[in-house]
Amino acid sequence: MSDVTAPAEAAGFRLRTATPADVSLVLQGIRALAEYERLAHECVATEALLHETLFGANPVAEVVLAFDGDTPAGYALWFRSYSTFLARPGLYLEDLFVYPAFRKRGLGRRLLAHLAGIAVERGYGRMEWMVLDWNENAIRFYRSLGANMVEGWELCRVTGDGLRSLAERAS
Prior knowledge:
Shape: globular
Number of helices: 6
CATH class: Alpha Beta
Largest sheet: 5 strands, mixed
Number of strands: 5
CATH architecture: 3-Layer(aba) Sandwich
Number of domains: 1
Radius of gyration: 17 Å
């Protein structure tokens, strides 16, 4: 899929795939998202870690950056997932963030449409993401795009000491 698409340009935004030179912009966006989600205390990402995981020998995620002129306006970070039921890969959207000054101008919709285009082009069977239950604006927005909230599923997570403890049980 091309890095720049006509509809984004028409809306005054330019989309492009992040490069190693953009690591500081990606980190800036991640920190802004963490603040917005009231989770800044959990954000331990650094430029070095992002460089390694996004652009190192084994990249695990991809990023598209959005600009209004030369000003960063938002970003989306995603990775490939897999559905055993579909027997096909999927696109898992980890982060979607639009800076407050650029909201309500169609950029979030444009970023999601861009990612949907990537998923279709690559033959993925679905696109998924999580939304915080208190974020009613985002929930309404996602529903307006046709997204379904998956009832009956809860996110399970093991991190830090719990992850290490669970790993020790395997040995």
